[in-house]
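Take a careful look at the sequence and tokenised backbone pasted below. I need to know what the token row says about the fold.
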Amino acid sequence: MKITDHIKNANGKTLFSFEIVPPQKGVGIADLYKNIDPLMEFNPPFIDVTTSREEYIFLERGNGLMERKITRMRPGTLGICSAIQNKYNVDTVPHVLCGGFTKEETEYLLVDCMYLGINNIVALRGDAMKGEKYFEQSKGGHKYASDLVKQIHDLGTGKYLHEEIVSDDNSSFCIGVAGYPEKHIEAPSMNYDLQMLKKKVEAGADYIVTQMFFDNQKFFDFVKQAREIGIDVPIIPGIKPIATKGHLQMLPQVFKIDLPENLISEVLKCKTNSDVREVGIEWAINQCKELLDFGIPVLHFYSMGKSDNILKIGREVF
């Protein structure tokens, strides 16, 4: 079922969903199941599965020579989607990137999704390759997420890259895209970023999932500004509970977000990361309750492979 249909069928009730990261190559899926199992008590209608882009590794070839190779550390997104869908009878949402994929590779991936009964896609531009300062368009790939959205949307109407196919099969996807309550790192202004978001919606996006944030007012302002420029699709807030003291530096650096002074102060008082985890849980609970009052369609959690803190939050909120 499509995400928009799940939201419609909920009749105003806020749904629970979460995102997982595929394990690294050589690691089984069992640990992933251990972290998914506890969260199924909240009846998530869908689970997102991230996709990693390629990165460079260097292989020693002897005589001091090194050979640069491209690899993917966390492949298997579609395989994991299929396994989860069959094990839990829940919809899965693979992330599809511009970076690292040609348009043809994207088309093949979408066809595989159709065969697997996957109806939902999150379309993302993706980050720059590790070691590169700026995002570089892959040869034969898309430069912008809006172009990727258009390809996915076109395929759903039978417009493939090199031919048009008339079929009775319903191959249209429900397309999610990313939104940034504190603007994308590369956007010169918030207004510019919102216009780029609108472009993705006009290209065929059906819903928006936001990057993590810790100040709800920034989300409320973001929704208001989006509605004012004509973006009318569901906007789903993304929540990540802070878990370590290192997050005070890492999250602002990697995601270019601000942390509220009250949260920073509470984290700095903590003696251990276990204490930080409890602070993060309490902060997220308060965040979620306020977001529920705001009337959001879904609470979407970034689990990053761990579920114990999200389980505690969910039991207080749902």
